[in-house]
Design brief:
alpha/beta, Rossmann fold, six-stranded parallel sheet, 42% helix, globular
Length: 369
């Protein structure tokens, strides 16, 4: 079958979405389908890639030029799958009956509608942002078939008034993660200035508000007050630290034991997981939460939020904490610490259910039905 996958704009510099598109392409091609990936090409956006001007030039590429391209090509495929819910606006330029979409999350829509507490979001959504999310919502809830990464995302989409067929299929990892020899971590840890032999917690993520990275630092600082964790360090892998993160480290007096690893490769992340005492992942919201399964696949203990979909994804294999209460979170971790080996092994077993074969069996049925 001829299937078109609509990808994401390269200059948006997303990391997880290109991985997901690649996952779909490889998985569907392995089952004999003819796959074409089409995404907005940077034309105007190449003229300027930063600031307000860069954003608006990107809008021209995404919302003016690309729809014209879709109109001229849309008859070539038997099925069209939009790989990211933020691209739902293309529904109007496609044959609706052939279209399906993956909805990873609706956090941006809910934030634009004021559904999250202002203190969590930490900023005011601009009027253009609210208009864009309203446009995305109008189309997203009209897509005939929607596959969601988690039940939490599916329920949130239902609350917005979605009228199509909604199905949850838990996504697998885009690549294999497995325990690696901790000796491989030596150079990486030295580069991050982590003392040799020091136990460490690991956080993996960007600087989006819902990643809750300032509270990652505060939870760690509370843990350090206990003699059981006084030697521990914290590595935050992902994007470079923000000023509020550095301020939190200074205020909590943990600057000397918090370390950043910027834009690590998958191999480096796998190495860091394998050597960590635990993944500390107290997100406020997620569409799915790939780091949970990555860590469990590396036989690493997971500490995450007592919120969905983190609980849905982690199963029995995690210590669950209140992401907004660092003191309570540290208490919950310390209380569960004697049981950490059982929880870790439960996590390994949980990760085995997130495999590509199972996923593509379900996804292919969804796409072709």
């Amino acid at each position: 079958m001829r299937i078109l996958l609509i990808g994401v704009y390269p200059l948006d510099r997303q990391t997880s979405m290109p991985r997901y598109v690649d996952l779909l392409q490889r998985g569907l091609e392995s089952r004999g389908h003819a796959i074409t990936v089409l995404k907005p090409t940077p034309r105007f956006g190449r003229l300027c890639q930063s600031g307000a001007l860069g954003k608006w030039l990107g809008y021209l590429d995404k919302y003016l030029v690309f729809p014209i391209e879709l109109l001229s090509l849309r008859a070539r495929w038997d099925r069209i799958h939009i790989c990211d819910n933020s691209s739902a606006i293309y529904l109007g330029w496609l044959p609706k009956a052939a279209v399906s979409i993956t909805c990873h999350d609706v956090m941006a829509i809910l934030a634009a509608e004021g559904k999250f507490p202002r203190e969590e979001v930490g900023r005011r959504i601009s009027w253009t942002g609210r208009l864009l999310q309203a446009w995305i919502k109008r189309n997203l809830i009209r897509v005939p078939k929607v596959v969601c990464d988690s039940d939490a995302t599916r329920q949130a989409l239902m609350s917005l008034g979605a009228v199509g067929r909604l199905e949850t299929i838990h996504i697998p990892l885009g690549r294999t993660f497995a325990p690696v020899n901790s000796a491989r971590a030596g150079d990486l840890l030295r580069k991050a200035a982590v003392p040799a032999g020091a136990p460490y917690f690991l956080h993996v993520g960007g600087n989006q508000w819902y990643k809750n990275r300032v509270n990652v630092i505060r939870i760690f600082a509370e843990l350090r007050k206990s003699p059981a964790f006084h030697r521990h360090h914290l590595i935050l892998a992902g994007k470079a630290w923000t000023d509020p993160m550095r301020l939190a480290c200074a205020r909590e007096n943990v600057l000397d034991c918090c370390h950043e690893v910027v834009d690590a490769t998958d191999d480096e992340i796998e190495t860091l997981y394998s050597g960590a005492e635990a993944l500390l992942f107290p997100s406020l919201h997620e569409g799915f939460g790939w780091p949970i399964i990555e860590a469990q696949s590396c036989a690493t203990l997971v500490i995450t939020s007592n919120r969905e979909p983190m609980m849905e994804v982690a199963g029995e294999g995690a210590i669950f904490v209140d992401p907004l209460d660092p003191r309570q979170a540290a208490f919950a971790i310390a209380d569960a610490w004697p049981r950490r080996e059982k929880i870790r092994l439960d996590g390994v077993r949980n990760s085995e259910a997130f495999n590509p074969t199972q996923y593509f069996d379900a996804f292919e049925r969804f796409l072709l039905s």
